Amino acid sequence: MLRFVPALVFSLFTLSAQAQAPASMALPPEFEQLLRQYETAWRGKDLDALVALFEPQGYALSSEQQPVQGRAAIRAHYAPVAGGPLSLRAFAVERSGPLAVLLGAYRYGPGPADQGKFTLTLRQDAQGQWRILSDMDNGNTPPPRRAAG
């Protein structure tokens, strides 16, 4: 069961009030390494390396799709879409003991504009390795407007 400290929840929600994209931040080395491993595995469509970053019963929570749990399901979920010039950047991180939450943005290819954002919920295992407990992402495209009436 995940428990978040009030300061963590408060600091995460204050980010949502910002009108423009938050600035990138330097991460502690272990989190920076995890992001670069994720990028490398995604770009090379190395699904074995990608799912190895997750806890065995971790979750992938993608936009407009049902949650998937477990490495086999995550592998199948990412297989048709992995690959390409993914770039990840972080703009917030909070750690409380063996749990951490990383907020960031992503884009594909060159260009300054973020195409979406993500949260990674991380848990440190008994050997000190950080693993992804959940990976949630969604694009920056606004949802379609409903017709008035």
UniProtKB/TrEMBL annotation:
Keyword Lipid metabolism: no
Keywords: Signal
Signal peptide: 1-19
Domain DUF4440: 33-132
The name this protein goes by in its record: Nuclear transport factor 2 family protein
Organism of origin: Inhella proteolytica
Lineage, top ranks: Bacteria, Pseudomonadati, Pseudomonadota, Betaproteobacteria, Burkholderiales
